[in-house]
Known about the structure:
It contains twelve helices and 15 strands. It has helices at 3-11, 33-43, 63-68, 160-176, 200-209, 211-236, 259-280, 297-303, 320-327, 343-346, 349-363, 383-396, and strands spanning 49-53, 58-59, 73-75, 91-94, 100-103, 110-111, 117-121, 124-129, 137-138, 180-184, 242-246, 284-288, 307-309, 332-336, 369-372.
Amino acid sequence: MNSRERVLCALQHREPDRVPIDVGGTRQSGIAAATYHRLKQHLGIHSRTRVYDLFQMLAEVERPVLERFGADVVGLYRADVAFGIRNEHWRPWSLFDGTPVEVPGGFAPVTEPNGDLVLLQHGVPMARMPKDGFYFDRLDKYPGAAHADVEKLKLPLLTDEECEHYRLQAEAFYQNTDFAIIAPLGPPYELFYGLGTGDFSAWMVTLATEPDYVAALYDKLVTTWLENLQRFVQAVGHRVQILQFNDDFGTQDAPFLSVNMFRRQVMPFYQRGLDWIHQNTDLRVFLHSDGALFPLIPSLIEMGVDILNPVQTSARGMDPVRLKQEFGDRLTFWGASLDCQKTLPFGTAEDVAREVEEHVRIFAPGGGYVFASVHNVQAGIPPENLVAMWDTARRAGRYHS
């Protein structure tokens, strides 16, 4: 069974030969560049580490590493993953800790007197990485994001050039690898967060007090999303298996909003897009949403979500046994590896292996499970713990006929 077959089998809630594994296949299951470089050194792999996501400073995971850990998934991205900077014309650079990496040629941060790195757009600061930091924080604010003029709002449509990039990249992955291909393509902005880079507190007030305005904005966002989906599907055809969208509905203790509010103000608009996907394609829908989501999960399934990521089992109410028992026949869990806030960074390799083994034991039966880190592997994670995480998943995830 090859990787693509393995992933599709699991998504159909059948048991493949082993649990599929995602090693850096999405920008939410990626690896910090410094950690990735140290992992390669630990494995005896000597190559230049490329930073393909400048926002989160994530490494491009190379084929030898994917093969070493039995990875089954690859991500299909825009040419300009972050800040509008195309991933091309790579050049040497160093992280604050001295890690040697390669970055796109268009990446040219300014170093401020205090050592911070700042990215400029038309001379205006767009993002900042504090001295000795690990990733950038966005500084730009979408004009009027808390209450944009819907009529005047211009939203990004996929260009012919972008569609051609998707077509060529999907064809290359499909013909030259047997990986399952996942592509992120949600609405132009996450619906729950409005226009994303504005004032979140102000937007929450708008969301709660101006339902007609919110509905008009969401309608415009989803209309644009549907046009982009049509262009994307026409470009990639049958070559992509999974379509990802992101919207964080939960804190670590509870959902951000009530079930009633979610069903009334957010769900109908996402459902419009997901209905189109299910009616017109064979794509499986992957939602990345952190936090304590348990009360929302029945609505997410009804909305059209096939796959939930990252399955943060350390959040309140996200008990692995209860999740699998109540939703395992209708939802694929993608992630749920272990506590990546405590055990992965601070435990021993033995602690990591023990927790991974327990989670695989719970989530694997009957399929419907893809193993991945719970969100991105952060800077400072010991390479021994990463080896223990993925090696244990590969060993413990074998099904018996």
